[in-house]
Amino acid sequence: DAESWVKHIISFSKTTGLMSIVGYIIGLGDRHPLNIMIQRSTGKVIHVDFGDCFEVTRERVQFAETVPFRLTRMMISVLGPPSIDGSFRKTCESTFKVIREHRERSEE
């Protein structure tokens, strides 16, 4: 039904935003549909295959990842009518804000 669809889209948008920013910060490359699972009952995104963490992809001789963050048209189309300007953007911004506020604590 429509209500369930909206809940799933919002959940997908929020978890995608969160995982996108965290993945960008830790240097997680190699993100494509085969490395992302979606929980059917909630729409939440779960990332799998962390073999290319911590900027390992930049060091690869063959198929080096040159883009630190990639948001494909396929991912954007699943974000629903607000596209990137809805829950996805708000979640990305608040995730960055929380990480910036707490970065000094990790340096101690």
Task: Give me the side-by-side strand order of the main sheet.
Answer: 1-2
What is the number of strand segments?
2
Low-confidence stretches: none
Q: Give me the number of helical elements.
A: 4
Topology pattern, helix = H, strand = E = HEEHHH
Shape descriptor reads globular
Distance between the termini: 50 Å
Radius of gyration: 15 Å
Q: Residue-averaged pLDDT, rounded?
A: 78
Strand content bin: 5-15%
| Overall SS class | mainly alpha
Largest sheet data: 2 strands, antiparallel
Helix percent reads 40-55%
Word description of this protein:
By secondary structure, this protein is mainly alpha-helical. The chain is built from four helices and two strands; from the N terminus they run αββααα. A two-stranded antiparallel sheet has the order 1-2. Helix 1 packs parallel to helix 4. The radius of gyration is 15 Å and the shape is globular. It starts with a helix and ends with a helix. The mean pLDDT is 78.
Question: What order do the helices and strands come in, and which of them pair?
Answer:
Elements (H helix, E strand, L loop, with lengths): L1 H25 L9 E3 L6 E3 L8 H4 L13 H6 L8 H21 L1
Helix pairs in contact: 1-4
Quick structural gist:
The chain has four helices and two strands; from the N terminus they run H-E-E-H-H-H. The protein is mainly alpha-helical and 108 residues long.
List keywords for this structure.
single chain; 108 residues; mainly alpha; 2 strands
